[in-house]
Every structure is written in structure tokens, then in C-alpha cells.
Automatic annotation (TrEMBL), chains A, B:
GO molecular function terms noted in the UniProt entry: peptidyl-prolyl cis-trans isomerase activity
Protein name: Peptidylprolyl isomerase
InterPro entries per the UniProt record, alphabetical: Cyclophilin-like_dom_sf (IPR029000), Cyclophilin-type_PPIase_dom (IPR002130)
Keyword flag Signal: yes
Ranges of residues in domain PPIase cyclophilin-type: 61-244
Keywords assigned: Isomerase, Signal
Gene3D superfamilies per the UniProt record, alphabetical: Cyclophilin-like (2.40.100.10)
Isomerase listed as a keyword: yes
Signal peptide annotation: 1-22
């Protein structure tokens, strides 16, 4: 008996290839990929140029991050100020901890912060739910009373406060023991099973939309907490840019699937009830970090 | 203002370094690391030599996997047969999909399986709860009525059936579209946010106890589903061994924290209510994949 690896574990978030296959069996419920492919343009929301942070690494890779000013406005303003001052150029990835985070910042801890930053920075770990349109996910969550989506963002709430969930690929602000010690100069992204216990303890400021593999496939740090050993080679950020600062023709454009669209609800239901040819028993549920809003890159 | 990266995000599963610090503040509740460090020897359960699979890669790294015969006995017997026949020697890692799986097997799909295997292999996706002592985790779960632990294993149940949860580091059996097409020759480990929807759809056969970074830090595959491109270099397994087949002095020994121990319950409670110097607001809950039983390697 031989195995056909290319058919194994085919149930993937964005398996557009499945579309053609399913068209031959029209009686089946649509897969989440089919729903996504059929969604109208209005179901996608552009990430504003001012919220798109581009990190160019010395490996030649680019990591694209969407910032979330609706959730951490002061931190996001600080990150824009750091970017525009050129502060991120030359800083390094200092920590790669398996199943946890990849973290970058000033390894020397001596680089002065630029003017125009708010420090100490308020502890923007949550905000008021008021003013946000939260589409509830509709399934149980271990950590929060409610999870769901606001536009293209994964969110949790206790009915009064709301905060970004700490899922794979989300970007947070490193800090010291005191809550107001994270300025935005030290950032990390989640690279393992969602450490949801960090929510409301740390500022989440965005999400990696593209290029995360340039961070996740880095050699793991060998020291405590996954820090690189003193003297070990460290990947460097050679340039950081806010997309709005590029000439219009050079700006990359990304869109997030918008929870305000009816197609979004269909997509969540399909994610929770996978019925493609691989699945025998649909879960009947999905957790918020397995329901991250799809991203697409638009032509320039 | 400078940042102290080494103090950032210090809330880690096994931060034994925190012990000394906390001793100066005895009024605080014990951290999960302190509970673990203080647990009696009886709280740890040895992984049997017959259940310990050692994969030596051409990089020189060793990946250590605990097999779970209580959950997938036929698959585990097949994996032992494959190992003892030398079948895994020379096979390659063929798929590295970010935030999902690393998968290894016979890329040529032509290598004949050895004698002594049961094929087609029964679809061991779940078993009866009867005969298992499940310690309920005690917190909500999106996917299952109950999650908890059986010995050193993370388990979910609907009250009748029980199955291993598909958490980071768990090992599963690749298969084709038909449920009985996975023999154990094609294996993968979970390397991202837990794809819990795979539970009851695929056989989980074990857990990576050591060396997972030799798999998770591999370059991501560039083809659909994260497969490596035809002709791209593929990491190879040069030798696979069941620990029981080694001379006694050469066998590695691993232990799992045992859910039957009272210390285990204290550990879960501390994981759900982190109150060390970093945490401002304990979550009050933990999900099963953030409560993976701790592992320790014993001296030879």
C-alpha cells in the first residue's frame, strides 16, 4: 500500500484549489474556501496605508504587519514615530522561543528613543466595547465570555471591555514587569499555540499579514526564554516603512475579510462544520484563533 | 527609556529560574513552575522504553516521540514494525506548512511496507472512555464537552468516547481521503495553533517530547499545503529506533507529569491563575493545549 502525501491533511484555511473539485458535486455545502472565493468585493476591507508596517530583513524577506490603532492608539502612534525616525533600522531579532514568540528590538538596550513618542506609554491592554461592532463567533471559549470579530480583527470581550485575542501571528509589545514599560520599540509576534493568558496583560498592536515564515523558521534561541546566545548571529531589520510614506505606486495593498459582511458569517459556519471530502466528523465549532480573518494581497 | 528584553514575557511554562525570586515573597501563591519543582517523584510517570521512538535526522538532531498505544494500538504497532524493519531510515521531511504541520514519509511513494503491519489499518480516531481515568481540566472548550488528562496525555471526551487532543507537538498519522488509508508510515507533528477540528478525523499516535525545534525551524515548503518543491533539498531521517531496542545504558529516559497526582491539579490551577510578578490579570482559565503535561528527561 502506498500513501499519497499530497492528499493528506488537505483541510486548509485557504485551499482555493478545492473549488474546482467541489463544482462537480454541487449538492455539498460550500467549503469555507468556496465561500471566500465567491465573496463580493464589499466583503473585503483595505488595510489603510497608514496602518501597514513593512519590515525588511537582512535575509531579503519582508514581513508585513497591519497595525491596530482602534485597540492601541498610543502604541501604534509610537510605532509610526519609531518607524519614521529610522529607529527600527539595524535592530535585531533577539528571541526565538519555540511554540511561543519571536521578538525583535534593540539588543544593546542603549539606543535612545526618538522624539515624538509618548513614554511612559499607557497600558492599552483593553478598550471599551462601546463603539465597536462585535460579531460574536458563537462558540465557547476557555478564556473569555465572548469572542468574535470586529472588521478584520479577532476580538474577545467580557461585555464591557474588548481586546484583541493573542492568536498566532498577532503582534504584541514587549514590556518589563511594570505595566507601563512597553513603548512599542520592543515587539514580538506569536508563533505557537495561542498564549491567550497574555490577553489583558500586554498590548496587542497588530497582526502579521505576510512573510511570517521569515520569522517562524528562524533558528530557535538557545538561552533561557529562547533568547539568542551572546555573540550568536542575529537576523537584522534593515529597513522599516509605513506604507503611506512610499510613493503610491510602490505601496503594497492588503485586504482583510470583513466581519460586517454576510459572507463572513457563512465562512465561520463552514469553518466550524468542515464537510469536504477529507472530513468525516465536522467539529461543530471553531475557536477564535482558528477563525482568523483571511487576508489577501491586492495587485499594485 | 530603555527596555530590558530579558524580563519581557517572562511568564513561561517551565521558568524554574523564577523559584529563587519567589522565595523572597512567601505570601504569594505558588507558580506552576514552583509546584512542578516541588512535586514528588511519584507525580512523574516514566514513558516505557517500548513507547519511545527516536528519530535521528541528517542534521544531527534527534526528535524524541512518546507513542500512545492506549489510544491507537494498531497504528503504534505498525510504527514499531516500520521502525524495526528500518523502514524510516532514508525517508524525508516533505511538508513544512507554517502554523500547521511538519510531515515526513516516503516522498517517492514507492517504498514497500515491511511485513508484520496491519493494513488497511483501522480508523483509530477515538476509543471508549471506559477504562480511562480522565482528570477533567475544569474549563470550557470550544470543541469538546470535556477536556482533561489521562496520565500524561491531553484528552477530550463526549462522555462516551475519548481521544487525544490535537495540540502543538502531538503526532498524527497522515492519510488519504478514505479513513483507513493511514498506516503509520506517513507521520506529522502539529506546529501551530492547535487544529482541533482534526480530532476524530485522524489518528493521533503520540507526542514530540524533545527536539521539536529540529522540525519547526525547517524552511517552509513553497508548494501547495507547504510541500517542498520537487528537487528541493529535504531533511532526511537517517535512523529510527525504539528505545527498548537499545542497550539499557544507551536508552534515554523521559517522564511525563501524571494527572493522577494531586500536584497535577495544583499545577493546572496555577496555570489558569498566573500571579507571578508579570501578570496583572490572571485569565482564570486555561485551554487544554496550554496545559500540556510537562516533560522531563532523566539522567541515563
Amino acid at each position: 500500500m502506498t500513501i499519497a502525501p499530497r492528499h493528506i491533511l488537505s483541510a486548509l484555511p485557504l485551499l482555493f484549489a478545492a473549488t474546482a473539485f467541489a463544482q462537480t458535486a454541487p449538492a455539498k455545502p460550500k467549503t469555507s474556501a468556496e465561500i471566500l472565493a465567491a465573496a463580493p468585493a464589499s466583503a473585503w476591507k483595505a488595510v489603510p496605508d497608514e496602518d501597514l508596517l513593512l519590515l525588511d530583513l537582512d535575509s531579503g524577506a519582508r514581513v508585513v504587519i497591519a497595525l491596530a490603532p482602534d485597540f492601541a492608539p498610543v502604541h501604534v502612534a509610537n510605532i509610526r514615530a519609531l518607524t519614521r525616525a529610522g529607529w527600527f533600522a539595524g535592530i535585531t531579532v533577539n528571541r526565538v522561543q519555540d511554540n511561543y514568540v519571536v521578538q525583535w528590538g534593540d539588543a544593546t538596550e542603549t539606543k535612545p528613543l526618538p522624539a515624538g513618542m509618548v513614554t511612559p506609554t499607557p497600558a492599552e491592554y483593553e478598550r471599551s466595547l462601546a463603539g465597536l461592532t462585535l460579531r460574536p463567533l458563537g462558540y465557547r471559549d476557555a478564556y473569555a465570555e465572548t469572542t468574535g470579530h470586529v472588521g478584520g480583527w479577532p476580538v474577545a470581550s467580557d461585555g464591557k471591555a474588548a481586546w484583541l485575542t493573542h492568536c498566532y501571528g498577532m503582534v504584541g509589545v514587549g514590556r518589563g514587569m511594570a505595566p507601563d514599560t512597553g513603548s512599542g520599540a520592543e515587539l514580538y509576534t506569536v508563533t505557537g499555540h495561542a498564549p491567550r493568558h497574555l490577553e489583558r496583560n500586554i498590548a496587542a498592536v497588530g497582526r502579521v499579514l505576510d512573510g511570517i515564515e521569515a520569522l517562524t523558521a528562524l533558528p530557535r534561541g538557545t538561552e533561557a526564554l529562547g533568547f539568542y546566545k551572546e555573540g550568536a548571529p542575529r537576523p537584522a531589520i534593515v529597513r522599516a516603512t509605513i506604507a503611506a510614506d512610499l510613493p503610491a505606486a510602490q505601496r503594497p495593498h492588503y485586504q482583510l475579510f470583513d466581519s460586517a459582511s454576510p459572507a463572513f458569517g457563512e465562512w465561520v459556519t463552514a469553518r466550524a462544520n468542515r464537510k469536504d471530502d477529507f472530513f468525516i466528523r465536522p467539529a461543530g465549532a471553531v475557536d477564535i484563533c482558528n477563525a482568523m480573518p483571511p487576508v489577501r494581497k491586492m495587485p499594485a
